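Q: Entry one of two.
A:
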Amino acid sequence: MSFLEIFTLFASSVTIFGFTVGVFSVYNGRMTRREIGGLIRETRELIARETEATRELIAREAEAMRQLIRETQEGTRQILQRITEILGRIDERVR
């Protein structure tokens, strides 16, 4: 076997190897982009769902807080009314 035949065999082997690696690297790149694109879509959907759930939770908590404030104000109003009545009676006795 001459040098030229060995070189041709080597070059063709390298060419076949390079072609195979090139094809699979393109395929791998496309699959990677497809998977990453899917993960990004899933992440966006998850963020949208969690954002909506967070808004609903905040709205429920705000309503619960408003209800608590109303109850506290009513209780305070009743206490102040009783104190006013007691002070009125005290004032009547003192006069």
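Q: Entry two of two.
A:
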Amino acid sequence: MCLYTYYNIMRKSKDKKFIRYQMVLYAEEHGKKAAERHFKTTVQTVRKWFRRYELYGYDGLKELSKRPHSSPAGTPEEEKLSLVKLKKKYKRLGADQIKEIEKLTISYNSREKLEHFLS
């Protein structure tokens, strides 16, 4: 019987795929609910890793990125490039000064982005 919860094991583990692999093997042999009890996790977690293992094999047990695939509110790529060109043109000026000179119409949040791209 596992003395630690799945969460604590994963938090401190260096090789998370191996522990998930052990859980999948245990689930194949004893069942998903037995694996849930043994690893002190939820049956939903066991099902998730079991399903990924069936679809992708051992490589399916790695952690997937939680980064969004797109950012609809993000600054368009062309605008970013034009801001970089402006910074190269006005090397010694700050974002507020460049905004004023070029008469840029950007919001306060965009100005912070501008400062980030220009620095």
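A: Comment on entry two: The helical segments are 6-12, 16-30, 32-39, 43-56, 77-89, 95-102, 108-118. The longest helix spans residues 16-30.
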